[in-house]
Amino acid sequence: MNAADEFLKVATDYQLGALDTESQHPFTTSLSQMARADVGEAVKLMHQVDVHALRQFAAKSTALADLARAIDATFAAGRRVFLCGCGATGRLSLSIEIFCRMGVLPVPDAERVVAFMAGGDLALIKAIETFEDHPEYGARQLVELGFQDGDLLIASTEGGETPFVIGATERAAELSHNHPWFLYCNPDEQLFDAAARSRRVIENPAIHKLNLAVGAMAVSGSTRLQASTVLMAAIGFAFMHQHDPENAPKEVLQLLRHVVHCDGQFLVPFIEHEAAAYERGAFVFYVSRRFGITVVTDTTERAPTFSLVPFEKQDDPAAPASWSHFFMPEQPGAHAAWLALLHREPRTLEWPDVRHVAGAEVLASYDFSAQLAPRRKIRTHDAEHLQFHIDGGAGEMVWEFDGLVHHVDLTGVHEFHAHLLLKMLINIHSTLVMGRLGRYLDNLMTYVKPSNNKLIDRAVRYVRLLARRRTSVLPDYEEVTRLLFAEREKLQPGEPIVLKTLAALGVKV
């Protein structure tokens, strides 16, 4: 049985097009065209989507008080709080742990906050393919980190259907009388229709649910945008107010005020300048001490979202260089850089069947320390490298890039809010840079990398949707799936799987 046959056997479990998080936002149906024609208007549209999502979040925020109480009770009992997710929610889970270790979020002991994501810490900067399709992996990572009775798991999944996260949540419910929390961003009725695994976890009385549905994403299916923002905010606000839970929901309105005040129009020249750099063959180093985890998250997520070359393995001289790369020039070596980013030793997976993609030896080959710059000169044959700094002292955030400088006023803004604001700004920035480079069409992820079952279905869905728009005929799901798998075998780095499959169907874009 070939790979297409294997997928088609389970395809109905991953046909998620009816979910809000997979739908097209009406504000941004021409986002790719706007990114080229009028960047300021494109920024305005994406900012409006953020504001709209936060307003919906505010209407659902009263339950944050209960989550804050659960965190407080867990710490008071001397137990630990675990956080887990996959992809963007995995990175936000690790970010919350790092914020606790940095003192941005208050905890009695940072060692009592343990975050993990599908694929271990390496997945923070390198997508670990197929991991999210395995609920048993989520359960196994949870247990191996020492989760015990009395511990609390806070699990987040933007879609509400990720098998890895569901597996971890259900195992936590079995192991601990302290009921886990399951946070997600789609309406229950949609999830009940879409996936039996979602219905199972939502209806489980031993699991607390927090539905934070905020509608469609600015780019269809790109849950690294609004969904992961509200999930990160929800968990962080609960940590902030574990001792005064009734005040947790008020933080949502405070964040909304910050976002409304900062409309992001200063991003326009930065977007145009970075896109132009890539067009002429230059590369970009992103540098940040204060905001490192937030900056590296966005830089990492560009690769799977837009089929860019990911951060390169330094022990592979043939690996192509990524367009943008996170960089910590003050750190002398790879291990020091990892320690500085995570504020702890890295956690890897040494399972015999995954060590080759997620183990310590592999993680050590990914370097964003001072050693990176000379290696990149060799790898890119002395190509132009620009540094993009996002930092700032008390009361401000400073963006600096190749002569462009902008100061964002953060007077009176809590540091966690500053990271959330930066997340939204840099998400807008990177999305519109990619839009100017043609890395999506309308607001569809035509360069999506079909590396797991959900993304395979998404790519098939986009092929069918675009084919129908151009021919008025909806092609057969199985036919498109088989064509997509055939094109995936021939796909070169940076090529758009959706557009290649459309061409194989004989449809012109």
TrEMBL record:
One GO cellular component term noted in the UniProt record for this chain: cytosol
Annotated EC: 4.2.1.126
Pfam family, one: GKRP_SIS_N
PROSITE patterns named among the record's database cross-references: SIS
Residue ranges of domain SIS in the record: 71-237
GO MF assignments: carbohydrate binding; enzyme binding; enzyme inhibitor activity; fructose-6-phosphate binding; lyase activity
InterPro entries, A to Z: MURQ/GCKR (IPR040190), SIS_dom (IPR001347), SIS_dom_sf (IPR046348)
Keywords associated with the record: Carbohydrate metabolism, Lyase
GO terms for biological process, alphabetical: carbohydrate derivative metabolic process; glucose homeostasis; response to fructose
Protein name: N-acetylmuramic acid 6-phosphate etherase
UniProt source species: Prosthecobacter vanneervenii
